[in-house]
């Protein structure tokens, strides 16, 4: 949902969570994947309320860890360049920034690689700031103010769907459904990029402050598998400060064309 990348994305290091800027100590509770998957209307409303009060700045998007912006973007740039070198790579036509916040990733990464970039973000304050930031830009397409649980792209729309530090704001069930919808929204050879924190405890960690979860890698991979996606690449984000959650960058593609 965004209120992500930049909104939901706060880095949750392992002591921070890879969400844009949080530590393990910020996670107030451990919970089971079954509990995470349970539909709870307040899970979404609490998150929306939290992000409404966050400053529409890079530091706000990264949970007070603005200094990780450079290594984050650098690793993402190398990753996306490696994707374009794959056999049958995605095109450079159109991408979407899911949980775009104020457009941090779009500004420093996606608009450099794609002709058009759409931004999906549920916080109107962030959308408004993004519109100001990109005023006059010919690279920006649509601004969609909605949560990712409600985002359904038209078929054959995107070359790359970028999801960073936001998927912890979706329940397990909604995340699986989200992945399925994104698969339908891809162009031929299109891919989904996931960049998320993962726990080292092997359990799901709930952050009651911003109403999000950080999943262990095996659970995230299980949800991806259930959504009929396959993992083409799976690497660790390098050069983050010690104490942060481990951050994985994955390239996904539908199993069936």
From TrEMBL:
<keyword id="KW-0949">S-adenosyl-L-methionine</keyword>
<dbReference type="Pfam" id="PF05891">
    <property type="entry name" value="Methyltransf_PK"/>
</dbReference>
<keyword id="KW-0808">Transferase</keyword>
<dbReference type="GO" id="GO:0032259">
    <property type="term" value="P:methylation"/>
</dbReference>
<keyword id="KW-0489">Methyltransferase</keyword>
<dbReference type="GO" id="GO:0005737">
    <property type="term" value="C:cytoplasm"/>
</dbReference>
<dbReference type="GO" id="GO:0071885">
    <property type="term" value="F:N-terminal protein N-methyltransferase activity"/>
</dbReference>
<protein>
    <recommendedName>
        <fullName>Alpha N-terminal protein methyltransferase 1</fullName>
    </recommendedName>
</protein>
<comment type="similarity">
    <text>Belongs to the methyltransferase superfamily. NTM1 family.</text>
</comment>
<dbReference type="InterPro" id="IPR008576">
    <property type="entry name" value="MeTrfase_NTM1"/>
</dbReference>
<feature type="region of interest" description="Disordered">
    <location>
        <begin position="1"/>
        <end position="36"/>
    </location>
</feature>
């Amino acid at each position: 949902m965004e209120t992500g990348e930049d909104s939901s994305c706060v880095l949750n290091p392992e002591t921070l969570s890879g969400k844009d800027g949080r530590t393990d100590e910020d996670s107030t509770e451990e919970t089971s994947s079954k509990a995470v998957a349970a539909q709870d209307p307040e899970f979404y409303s609490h998150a929306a309320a939290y992000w409404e009060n966050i400053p529409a700045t890079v530091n706000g998007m990264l949970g007070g860890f603005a200094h990780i912006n450079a290594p984050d973007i650098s690793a993402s740039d190398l990753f996306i360049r490696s994707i374009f070198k794959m056999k049958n790579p995605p095109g450079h036509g159109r991408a979407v920034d899911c949980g775009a916040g104020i457009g941090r990733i779009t500004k420093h990464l996606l608009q450099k690689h794609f002709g058009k970039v759409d931004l999906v973000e549920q916080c109107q304050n962030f959308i408004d700031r993004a519109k100001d930031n990109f005023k006059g830009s010919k690279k920006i397409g649509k601004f969609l103010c909605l949560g990712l649980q409600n985002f359904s792209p038209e078929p054959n729309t995107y070359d790359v769907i970028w999801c960073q530090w936001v998927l912890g704001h979706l329940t397990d069930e909604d995340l699986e459904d989200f992945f399925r919808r994104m698969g339908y929204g891809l162009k031929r050879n299109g891919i989904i990029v996931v960049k998320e924190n993962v726990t080292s405890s092997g359990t799901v960690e709930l952050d009651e402050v911003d109403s999000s979860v950080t999943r262990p890698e095996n659970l995230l991979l299980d949800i991806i598998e259930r959504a009929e996606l396959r993992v083409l690449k799976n690497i660790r984000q390098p050069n983050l400060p010690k104490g942060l959650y481990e951050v994985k960058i994955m390239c996904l593609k539908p199993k069936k064309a």
